[in-house]
Design a protein that fits this description.
It is a single chain. The chain is an alpha+beta fold. The chain is built from 2 helices and 4 strands. It has a 4-stranded antiparallel sheet with strand order 1-2-4-3.
Length: 71
């Protein structure tokens, strides 16, 4: 619907390595749209390869309990 957010950004701490990162959680209505998941994954794959001091590092995308996430 108009005005609804397509994502929520949260702060998370990695259990295995004890570092803090941001996690973007995509809203379920957008995840169910045709083609959205493929476009999202392609963008994440491209962002993972970027390295620059002025760009936030992207580690990857994954799904958990029906939610699409990027960290």
């Amino acid at each position: 619907s108009a005005g609804s957010s397509m994502k929520v950004i949260m702060v998370s701490r990695s259990v295995s390595s004890s570092f803090t990162c941001a996690v973007k959680v995509m809203s379920p209505p957008f995840v169910s749209e045709a083609g959205f998941v493929e476009i999202f994954r392609e963008e994440v794959d491209q962002a993972v390869r970027l390295e620059h001091p002025n760009i936030v590092r992207v580690f990857g995308a994954f799904e958990h309990e029906g939610h699409l996430l990027q960290s």
